[in-house]
Every structure is written in structure tokens, then in C-alpha cells.
Please model this.
Amino acid sequence: MWKGPRKVEDYRDVERPTKSRRLVNSKSSCPTTHEFLSFNDGNLPDWLLIEVLCRLPIKSIFRFKCVSKCWNSIISHPSFRRFYISRASASALPWGFLLKRIHVEGSKMANFPKHKLLENKISDGTLLSSPHASVLALPNSHKAKGPLYYIKAADNGVVLYGWFDLDRRSFNDATEYFICNPITKQWLAIPDPKHCTRRASFGFITQVDEEGILRSFKLVLVHCPCTSKIQNFLEFEVFSSETGKWVEHIVHSPCTVRVSHNKKAFVMEGNLHWDDCELGVIAYDPYNSPDKFRIIEFPHVDTEGNKSRYMCGGHLGRLKYFEVGRMFKPQGFSHLKIWALEDYSSNNWYLQHIVRKEDIMVDNNLGSSQHI
Model:
């Protein structure tokens, strides 16, 4: 019985077949040497099959799992995954582009191009002109016709899709969630949360092992009250792939907190992050500390009575704060500033970049605020 492929360092101990060598006459002055591999039972040994498979594209390997039970066992074994990743580590990692929004034929939103996703083609044909382009087929669902599917988040190569029902009166913009692996084209439907009709923001975070294999994921909804309502707590609703259930967590805060429903979370340092609009960045760890959150205060900048626009995100392992200083029209914005957090465990920011409008203007084309 096959017990899985050996580790890479163990391959040198495998007994190899005897090589026979012969000279073949040719018209050239130099003879040609051919090598032949022969096996007693006539079957291809596992070690040679592994050597061949690990040189193939990942999509082909997934298809070859259907060849036989033996091939499926070899490809599915963790040792093969380690060997494949070790060989591919020296080359570039696979990557690709995903459309953020894909319009399905029959939707009432006419301001998007009517890409016929269900027919696996795009009407204008420009996107799929490359042989490397493909379309992700939607899961078989009775809700698949008519609505709008779009990407809500992505982490470690796994994509969270949201389904938008135009006919449903809901505060939450997505009424159904799907997890998708673009490489294997596998879809997983997420059960409805307990409070699916509430206004909410969301976050998506995954955990992978040392080989990059997905171990688990969590989908987090933060229920957002109306802007006029003041509260000193946040209501989190967390779905775990390990349990397949939603769990509610009410986390209190010594100060008033508020998360806007149109703010998307980003992942950094194993935490999900939302901005509070006033206090700073809310850091939440659904894996290790689901019953508490941390507030990272914004840098102390003069917003001139909320005349500035800003955004937060993670870049190159650091938390960044991007500010667009605004002035009264028609002058438009005055400057661009980027602040970086010195250390993730602290609240110390430093000004990393500053660009004034005069430094980047060309023929006054950046004078209007509509460009920012």
C-alpha cells in the first residue's frame, strides 16, 4: 500500500532502476547517447510519477486527481504538496486579476456592462482575448439568476463574494456570502447570519499553514447603528469555518465607538481593522481575542473642521494613514500626507511623505477636488 511520497531529502535513498546505455549510429561524426529506464513490474513507480507531476501547472495537477485512486492519493498527500511547493519556491508565485464586480444578465442595474457570466463569456470579448483568462462559474443556486455578485474581500488567495439582491429591502448590502478558491474553482456557501437585516460592515480573515494551505477562515460582521445613535460597545457576529456556526460577541468600550457600514476592513498582523471615523483604527482578532478590541489612535493632525479626507490601510507590514488636505472650492485639495505607525504595538505615528498640490500640478489639471 502506498504510504505517501517521501520527503525531498529522502529521495536519494530510493532504489533507482538500472540505466542501460547504448550508442546510436548517426550521420554526424559524433555518436548519440540514449538512456533507457526499465522496471521489473512494468508499472511507473511513485517517485517517478511525483517527479513528473511536480513539474506540471497546478490546474493540470488538480485534473489528474481524477485519473485513478492511486494518483488522487499521491496528489492529495501532504508530502506531495511540500515537495511541489519546495520546487516552485524559486519561481514566481501564481497571481491573477479578478473583476471586483460582475454583472449577471437579467439584473436591473443597467449602469454596469451586461457581462453574461453564467454563459462563461463576456459580451465585448476583450477581457477573454488572452488564453490565460477564464471566468469563474457561479455556484448552482436558485439565487444565481438576476442579482449582482461582487468581491467583498480576499485574503491568502481565498475570495469572499457577496450576493446583492436588488428586490430585497435590507440594510446589509450583501444578503448571501460565498467563499471561493479561484484556482480550484471551489465555492462554499456561508449560512445566513442571525441578524441578516441589520446594517453591518464586514471583515474576512484566513489562516494558512507553513505550506500556504488554507486551514480556516472567519467572516466577521460588525453591526452598525444609525449615525444618530451613540453607544459604547460594538456587536460582532463571527462565522468560523471550523464550527460552521455564527457566534455573537458584544464588546464594550470606555468611550463611544462607531463603525460606518460602508467601511471595509483590512487584514494586518493577524487582525481585522476598521476605522472609527473619529477615534482611530479598531483592531479586532476573531481567532484569539473575540471578546475585546483595540483602538489605535489616528495621528494628531489638524483636520480644519473635517475639511480633510483620509483612508487607512496596511502596506509593507505597516499601518498607513493617508490624508488629503482640503480647502474651499474652487482651490481643491492642498496637500497629500502619508503617516506610518512606527510599531504595531504602539500608537506612535510618523510623517512618511508629504506632497503639496503645487508639486504635482500640470496645467492646473489637479485644481478641482473631483480628482481626489
In short: The first helix runs from residue 46 to 53. Helices lie at 46-53, 58-64, 69-76, 78-88, 357-360. The first strand starts at residue 19 and ends at 24.
